[in-house]
Amino acid sequence: MHQRLNRFLEAVASLSRQPNPELALAGITAPALGAARPKTAHLSAHPGVQERPTSVTSQAEAGTVAGLSSYPPVEKWDEWEEYDPKAWPERVKRRYMLIPTTCFNCESACGLLGYVDIDSLEIQKFEGNPLHPGSRGRNCAKGPATHNQVYDPERVLYPLKRAGKRGEGKWVRVTWDQVLEDLGERLRKAFQEGRHNEVIYHVGRPGHDGLMEWILFAWGVDSHNSHTNVCSSGARAGYAFWMGLDRPSPDHANARVILLISSHLETGHYFNPHAQRIMEAKMAGARLIVLDTRLSNTASLADYWLSPWPGSEAAILLAIANHLIRTGRYDREFVRTWVNWEQYLKAEWPAEPCTFETFEEKLKELYGENTFEFAAAESGVEAGVIRQVAEEVARCEGKLASHTWRSTTAGNLGGWQVARALWFLNVLTGSIGVEGGTSANAWDKWVPRPHKMPPHPNRWNELTWPDEYPLTFYELSILLPHFLKEGRGKVDTYFTRVYNPVWTNPDGMSWVEVLTDEEKMGLHVCLTPTWSETAWFADYVLPMGHAAERHDITSQETHGGRWIAFRQPVRRVALEKMGQDVNYTYEANPGEVWEETEFWIELSWRIDPDGSMGIRQYFESPYRPGEKITAVEYFRWMFENTVPGLPEAAAKRSLTPLEYMRKYGAFEIRAGVEAPYLQAVEAELLEDAIVDPESRIVYSHAPAPVSPNITPHPAFPGDGRGRPVGVQVGDQVLRGFDTPSRRLEFYSPTLREWGWPEHAIPGYIHSHVHPEVIDQQANEFVLIPTFRLPTLIHTRSGNSKWLYEISHKNPLWVHPRDAARLDVRTNDLVRVSTEIGYYVIKAWVTEGIRPGVVACSHHMGRWRLQDTAMERWSSALVDLTPQGEGRWQMRQVQGVLPFESSDPDSKRIWWSDVGVHQNLTFPVHPDPVSGMHCWHQKVKLEKARPEDRYGDIYVDTDKAHEVYRDWLAMTRPASRVSPDGTRRPYWLLRPFRPTRAAYQLPSGKFAE
Ligand code: SF4
Question: Which residues are within 8 A (CB) of 706 and not within 5 positions of it... i.e. 6 or more apart?
């Protein structure tokens, strides 16, 4: 022992004397230990101002990537040498190819470099790709943990087919060819019989842009179903009603004030790319304001942390708006030019003079009651603190970067109005599309289009877009089990793709009930990189690749700029660089792990092998007429034809566009903020245009420009005058915003006309967990079940040993005052009762949560039904027992135990607790406007009863159905409120938009 310790100390001493061998190989000298860090090169001395970055690729080639002091130079990526750490203290060199790819472990799509050993073809590790404009070489823990996912001994390596009853856990290995033949025939039959709506594709983490529009449109189906209404429907709706686009894109790095309603420094949306820029802004003097009921890591670094009662955030934001309005500290010219105030006055105050001054008076009246004191009474945050925050916002000088995602917009009834109230502050301060402000997502994102795009399908699927929710963002995916139970339809073929609704969604037992009912769910095909609770109830489990095992194009609005990145199967690329042909990616991946792009192309070809159904034509190669396109050709064509600037940049380096993307993994289309709403309308659109003399909206009959990008939305209702293409401002015709008025819609005619006139302007809606419905004396609390942990993904962290070693419990956060009242201490068991059941969990007594509120992370509580090789790093073995009609009891048989596998670390597992699956006990709460599942729960807390054990779960799905009916009763269906006989406003964003004709309500359904 002493000998080993001495060797270790000697080695540490020698390390401090020697140059870092890795850096020495790269020709870079390591700074002496303790030396001052060099000043970050790209920050200027002026607070809040950042020098505009130049092309990241050219920086990399010059060896000056912003902020990074060490990375292997690009010219050595094809052959890079490092000493083998396992051979230490011997110095054994190993040779690697560094292949860029992008992380698949959250939506940020940060750049990674896969180190592929040239001799063994094994992947040694993943590090950041310094050339990626979004992440700039940095990653969170989940990026490098991709290595665990690739080498997880528990992963699914071959296609499996169910052998016993569904959910019985019996599987046989099949070939990809058998899978494709079976599915191709089944889908062909469904389409030939006109049963298109019985095919549903349900995706959790898409990880790509544009691919599934190509596939599903070619099939002619309206079958896309997303995870969005357990994630972001609330925020999306709030933004879309304002500007037609449904996400914000803050330029954090250059902001003076950053206002976050989410935990962006550790887990919020695009958090690694955002976090590094938020910190740059903070270092340059920006003020950081965080609204979060829970003390998140982000809140701990804020200048102002406000811990409001959940759901009261809009009251605070409107008090700030009122302060700006009353004190006249808003951007008058911006509001006068770009807000649809005339439309508001004419509709609501027709007798009053239609002047901006009248509107300003109305603003004072409308928000006069939104005082600091009112906000304080609603939120529990001191009025003086809200006033200070309002002053900070007032001083932002048009540089307010704001963001809300998930968090309160995903927690509360009416959460979408929080996003609307937050964007109101950007509007008032003029912080839109400017440096340091906030843009619309599509301005900073680019989605290339494939060589042959099929037309929009002429179908409407009411299982995903039901009559009751004409304004939802997006599909009502959480209601599928209830719709099937009600007999609204059935599903012939159900694809789940990187999605685990049994575990991720609320009301998981209702999912189990329909997934095991073969009358309702004909065939369940689970495309997944890992075992999951949902895969267990599948007919096919089809292994799909992780970040290093697949091709995808990604582009995200991570900052003021625009980029695309290329996810690559790193071993395939390495093999090809060595001159070896690879036909399909599964030939290079572990086992027969495949990738979706190739899978969907092959399946589409099998559905229509002779082209008679009109599907095959979209999958013929643009380079080899009549032959099947390859995945590589699919990407090659897009890089050559639909990415602005890429062919030129590639040519400069004597590369083809595909070679460029293979080599660098990312391309920066634009650096810096751009505001398309200020761009002049194209001359060809103005040839036959007319200008409405009152509104100055410009209408045109000219066809919509064929844009490879998603930004323009050509689909507007029009009224014989054509479609609105711009707005006249002075003597110019500018594009304006993607709304019918081409302005920012403070007043939403859409909300008014479609049944929600009381919410047509930004407002405050009492949440379903407002204090007035919580009886604190009866030990009722609000449960916040939504927060992420920085180190976990959703289902996919289950096969990452590093991540699970760091985080594997989800105790219930309880304030000390409440804990004392309940006589509960840390680690005591408590029973948390919801509307449909209860769960038993350990308490964590902490001042990080406000009194009256409890919180529990949504990441934990993975489970499996058999003690077989699946997710044993992260799941408890459970007994799931039906207790009679609709009632289910789950009890943990054992937690995690060490196990034998090809990975010696599996015998070293030291943790056993993997948390409790709280989501099973939540009924669905779809917001009647946005469709967002309102996650927060009114719960009752008590000390565990004698019969309770840790991890116990009890659920009554009949009660869950009753709660669903209660929330459904709040809706205002299209068939009742539609002003024009359509199912949904045509202008409003809808993913996978069908034809205009499909929007028409069936005759007889529309109440005139
Ligand atoms: S933030 Fe982390 S998990 Fe998300 S893409 Fe970046 S490295 Fe991957």
Answer: none
- Reading the block at residue 236, the tokens are 């999306």
Q: What share of the chain is helix, strand, coil (3-state, %, to 5)?
A: 30, 20, 50
Q: Of 14, 9, 152, 133, which Cα lies nearest the Cα of 65?
A: 133
- Specify the pTM: 0.92
With a CB cutoff of 8 Å and minimum separation 6, the contacts of 493 are 183, 186, 187, 190, 198, 199, 200, 522, 523, 525
Return the residue matching tokens 């934990």.
860
3-class secondary-structure state, position 45? coil
What is the residue whose two structure tokens read 């100390």?
9
Closest CA to 782 of 834, 838, 828: 834
CB-facing half-sphere around the CA of 847: CA atoms within 13 A: 1
Beta bridge partners of 635: none
Whose C-alpha lies nearest to ligand 1, atom 6? Answer: 110
Cis peptide before 474 (omega within 30 of 0): yes
User: Can you give 694-717 as a three-state secondary structure string?
Assistant: CCCEEEECCCCCCCCCCCCCCCCC
Ligand 1: residue whose CA is nearest its atom 1: 272
CB of 105 sitting under 6 A from ligand 1: yes
Residues present in the chain in total:
1008
Q: Is the CB of 108 under 6 A from ligand 1?
A: yes
**469 and 975 Cβ atoms separated by less than 8 Å:** no
CA 593/CA 528 separation, integer angstroms? 10
Residue whose Cα lies nearest atom 2 of ligand 1: it is 140
pLDDT digits (tens, 9 = 90+) for 780-826: 999 999 998 999 988 888 899 999 999 999 999 999 999 999 999 99
| Ligand 1 and 271: CB distance under 6 A | yes
67-78 residue pLDDT tens: 556 789 999 999
- Amino acid letter, 431: S
In angstroms, the Cα distances linking 13 to 82, 156, 420 are 21, 44, 58
Nearest atom in ligand 1 to the alpha carbon of residue 272 is 1
> Ligand 1 mean position to 30 CA, how many Å?
27
**Angle CA(232)–CA(108)–CA(53) in degrees, nearest 5?**
125
The contacts of residue 911 (CB under 8 Å, 6+ apart) are 804, 805, 808, 895, 896
Cβ of 143 less than 6 Å from ligand 1: yes
Ligand 1 centre from 803 Cα, in Å? 13
Which mean pLDDT values do the consecutive 10-residue runs of the chain (1008 residues) have? Answer: 38 32 28 28 29 46 55 94 92 97 95 97 97 96 97 96 95 98 98 98 90 97 94 96 97 98 84 95 97 95 97 98 98 98 98 98 98 98 98 98 94 98 98 98 95 96 98 96 97 96 97 97 96 96 97 96 98 97 97 98 98 98 98 98 97 98 98 96 88 92 58 48 89 95 97 98 98 97 94 87 95 98 98 98 98 94 91 95 93 96 96 97 98 98 98 98 98 97 95 94 72
First CA to last CA distance, the chain: 86
The helix or strand, by DSSP H or E, that contains position 463, with its residue range, turns out to be none
Atom of ligand 1 nearest to the CA of 139: 7
187 lines ligand 1 (CB under 6 A): no
Q: Is the dihedral of CA 118, 123, 125, 128 positive or negative?
A: positive
**Do the Cβ atoms of 928 and 967 come closer than 8 Å?**
yes
Report whether residue 784 contacts ligand 1, using a CB cutoff of 6 Å: no
